[in-house]
Amino acid sequence: MILFSLFLVLMILLSLSMGYIHIPIIDIISILYGKISGNLQIIENTSEVYLAVIFDVRLPRILTCAGVGAALAISGGLFQSILLNPLADPYTLGVSAGAAFGACIAILLNLSAAFVSVPAFAFTGACITLFLVIFLSYSSQNPMSGLSSNNLILSGIIVAAILSTGISFLKFIANEQVSVIIFWLMGSFASKTWLDFFAVMIFLLIGFFISIFFARDLNLISLGAKSATSLGVNLKKVTIILLLTGSMLAAICVSVSGIIGFVGLLVPHTVRFITGPDNRKLIPLSMLAGAFLLLFADTITRAVLPHEIPIGVLTALTGGPVFCWIFKKSRLK
Amino acid sequence: MEIALHNISFAYDLDMIIKDIDCSFVSGNFYSIIGPNGSGKTTLLDLISDFLNPCTGYINIDQAPVLSLSTKDIAKKIALVSQDYAINFPFRVKDVVMMGRHPYIPRFSHPYGSDLERVDKLMEVTGIRHLQNRKINELSGGERQRCIFARALCQDTPVLLLDEAFSNMDISHTLQMLRLVKESVKKKNKLVISAFHDLNLASSWSDALLMLKNGEIKAFGNSQDILTQQTIKDVFNVKSIVEFNEHVQAKQVYYSSI
């Protein structure tokens, strides 16, 4: 836990120093120290460019990225336990398709002039999708088995399938905006602001506390509905709260940075090898590992590769094969 | 402790699974529910454990309606060994057994020494202590059932519901578990309700039998009175010979092999 936090801090510092303009880590530490302690002397001694690069460009991007990575990982962990499926991810319930659909509409209607509208539409799309999925799988007659993992996964897949066709259609009628849509769908952290960071952070903190609060109940839920109920978990209440938490986390991530795959699937799945399935350990550690991993990926596309490629593409292209390897290895055991 | 079912009915859509069941179960007795597949045994246990809510009628525990109790309160009164013991996550056996203490351990606190001792003791008596650090999803069906059994006992409830809890255990473990359960019924005045397929085990271990067919009670009462050729013919539609067996000290059922 402490080790992972340390890794994350190091990664943030390293990532701050790397990029088009190289800034020595020593300078970064002293600038950050000066800013935090309010020691203006240090700030005045450093160049304007460094300050602008760190505080206006890199830090918001890096912290947003870490926040999104953390949120995706927690969300993935929650979904895996709720859906009793170690291979579920934040997008299993169609949240990403909903967000993408919302974003496409905003782009198509050319609302992107108003700065917040694409994320706002994405978020709304994600929420509507989620409620639709829960509505589909919920039966008032038999509330306990209504929200079973099978029902949820099935409704999620159906809704996502309809929405992805919808997205294809929107792309088809989009003409020249199709490139904007495609670029948005692939995910990026370029030009993220402090506003994005605070939006992600609020959701992340709330999501984290709710997840930890219900972590032990979640352990029991992951054993199956009947076991959980007979051991005293109010299944319906806890499931709905955690579904909403996980989906909101995913929704905010998608609306801020587009669709970034595999973090939510891979991180909790891999961390489970270290911590075991106990969510009280799994959730915090996944959070740190997710933040670290996504920041690592973002730093590579931003500062190492000659051209910035969409981060969604990078995570899927590297995460996919890694996942195949882990999957195959665990099957062989 | 008494569990009383008042005119309980339950249906999935239009399929009536349980039809107007009215009976009560009293502490200090081992009840067995027997009946053909799909007769509603599991549903009845689910209704008693409050996993399902009846469409009509109500259930009282010691005169208090179940609906007035929280899930946690019920978990302190009723433990269930269900058939869903397939587990996808690699929890260790001792962690699974410890989950039986869940209703007693407040949020964010750690188990007390007494909880740990209880877990240890139950792993010992159910014969899974040597498996305690193994992952539950890597165990065999019978071993896993014993873990779930230990977890239910760990819940330390006055009522224990068993839903074919022995279906994957070998005979030696089945008898060992039955002995445990019987002892707690007689010494600690517990109430056990078990869904059974093996009529002979049901007859020799339980005090009372409840015969279920198509969601209705066909017979309910003292095991030795209820178990007859006629009732078995009525409920299961098989020919049999029912005789008192000296060795078992209970009635046993024999089927012809043609």
Task: Quickly describe the structure.
Helices cover 78% and strands 0% of the residues of chain A. With 333 residues, chain A is mostly helical.
Looking at this protein, list some descriptive labels.
heterodimer; A: 333 residues; mainly alpha; ABC transporter involved in vitamin B12 uptake, BtuC; 16 helices; B: 258 residues; alpha/beta; Rossmann fold; six-stranded mixed sheet; four-stranded antiparallel sheet; 33% helix; globular
The level of helicity of chain B is 25-40%
List the total number of helices of chain B: 9
**How is the biggest beta sheet of chain A arranged?**
none
Q: Which class of chain B in CATH terms?
A: Alpha Beta
Distance between the termini of chain B: 45 Å
CATH topology of chain A, which one? ABC transporter involved in vitamin B12 uptake, BtuC
- Total number of strands of chain A: 0
Provide the succession of SSEs of chain B. Answer: EEEHEEHEHHHEHEHEEHHEE
Uncertain regions spanning at least 5 consecutive residues of chain A: none
Average pLDDT taken over every residue of chain B: 90
Structural class of chain B: alpha/beta
- List unreliable stretches of 5+ residues of chain B: none
Strands side by side in the biggest sheet of chain B = 6-7-8-3-9-10
- Count of extended strands of chain B: 12
**CATH architecture label name of chain B:** 3-Layer(aba) Sandwich
Provide the residue-averaged pLDDT of chain A.
Answer: 84
Please tally the helical runs of chain A, counting DSSP H or I stretches of 4 or more residues. 16
Number of domains of chain B: 1
What is the CATH class of chain A? Mainly Alpha
Which pair of protein chains has the largest interface, and what are the residue counts?
Answer: A-B, 28 and 37 residues
